[in-house]
Write a structure and sequence with these properties.
Layout: H1 3-19, E1 22-27, H2 33-43, E2 47-51, H3 54-64, E3 77-82, H4 86-99, E4 104-110, E5 113-116, H5 117-125, H6 129-172
Length: 174
């Protein structure tokens, strides 16, 4: 690879690192081209799966400010650059790795923080953003309903108290 080609490849990798919400490093040794195509399809629109040379990736990652990836860049490495929902992409990688054990998740980076393989798996175990937002909305609605019921109970209790007091006075002959 000529020096100009390497500089272009580093610049492209650097821009991918900077423009992505997360990057997940994997080892793809033993996977066929058809399996890699299937993996790219399963990741969908929010992730780009690219094979890159380790030395060029190290340079690009360091230039982009991700210095903790050097230990992960050994062996054949492919990177999933995630532009959308990070949890969805992590689930796609985890599920593909379960079906194809030759894909090994090495680790990655999320919001400038280096993650190991177990942290990527924990991220994949999270529910999707939509489900979490729905649960939050449900919890907020339940709290509002409870507050409304409490506020509605105050006049009702006051009316019952006044009625009981009136009934007691009538009994006493007042």
């Amino acid at each position: 690879m000529a020096r100009a080609d390497k500089a272009t490849a580093v610049a492209e990798l650097k821009s991918e690192f900077e423009g992505s919400a997360a990057a997940v490093l994997t080892e793809y040794r033993g996977l066929t081209v058809a399996q890699l195509k299937e993996l790219r399809t399963s990741l969908g629109e929010n992730a780009k799966f690219a094979v890159a040379k380790n030395t060029l990736t190290k340079i690009a990652a360091n230039e982009a400010g991700f210095a903790g990836l050097d230990d992960l860049l050994t062996g054949p490495t492919a990177i999933a650059f995630v532009n959308g929902d990070v949890v969805e992409a992590a689930k796609g990688l985890r599920d593909f790795a379960k079906a194809n054990p030759l894909l090994v998740i090495k680790g990655g980076v999320l919001d400038g923080k280096t993650l190991d393989a177990t942290e990527i798996t924990k991220l994949a175990d999270l529910e999707s953003r939509e489900v979490l937002l729905a649960k939050l909305a449900g919890a907020m609605k339940a709290k509002q309903s409870a507050a409304a019921a409490m506020l509605a109970a105050l006049p009702t209790n006051m009316a019952q108290l006044a009625d009981a007091l009136r009934a007691k006075r009538e009994e006493a002959g007042e």
